[in-house]
Amino acid sequence: MEEVTVSGGTGVLDVVDGLPPAKRPELGANLRIALATGQIRKPLRDTLRPLLDLLTDGEYELSDDTFLPPGNWPSVEHARVEYYRSAIRAGHRPAAVLVDRAGHPGYVLDGLHKVTAYLAEDVTPRVIRIRRIPAPA
Questions:
Q1: Sign of the four-CA dihedral 31, 55, 24, 119
Q2: Domain for residue 45, yes or no?
Q3: Higher pLDDT, 113 or 21
Q4: Which of 21, 22, 63, 136 has the maximum number of C-beta atoms within 10 A of its C-beta?
Q5: Is residue 14 a part of any domain in this protein?
Q6: Is residue 21 situated within a structural domain?
Q7: Digit-coded pLDDT (tens) for 78-96
Q8: pTM for the structure as a whole
């Protein structure tokens, strides 16, 4: 687990107040490629910096983790899922990004197709998990 402080974040993606706006910002090409191929550099804060800049200011934990989605996982674009299934069968481990929210199992920010492909291959999905650290009382 890695801790990171977000200072000067835009708050465009506010994990405290709920889901992101309907028109959320796109992840940059370099980050999307790193997540799609599973080639995540450590420390995670370096790879995720463009995403972290969208969070509200605060303390967060980052972890390279796994995820067990609920049974009613959404159906998604078949061709994209097949692409990731092939990659998983070849030994690649693409990563989804999951933002934990208080009282909820998490919000998949990026990776519905990846998680669906993992489930189809009966492999536990790899995720990069972002969790806000509560402020001390």
A1: positive
A2: yes
A3: 113
A4: 63
A5: no
A6: no
A7: 888 999 999 999 999 999 9
A8: 0.69
Q: What single-letter amino acid sits at 112?
A: L
Q: Alpha carbon of 58 to those of 69, 107, 110, 131: distances in Å? A: 27, 18, 21, 10
Is the pLDDT at 23 greater than 60? The verdict is: no
- pLDDT at 92 (0 to 100): 94
Tell me the per-residue pLDDT of 51-69, one tens digit each, with 9 for 90 and over.
Answer: 888 888 888 888 888 777 6
Paired sense of beta strands 126-133 and 2-6, if any:
unpaired
Cis peptide before 69 (omega within 30 of 0): no
Which residues, other chains included, contact 61 with Cβ-Cβ below 8 Å and sequence gap of 6+? 1, 2, 3, 4, 129, 130, 131, 132, 133
- For 85, the 3-state DSSP assignment is helix
Counted domains in the chain: 1
99 in Cβ contact with 52 (< 8 Å)? no
- Residue 127, in any domain of the structure: yes
Of 79, 84, 42, the residue nearest 64 (C-alpha): 42
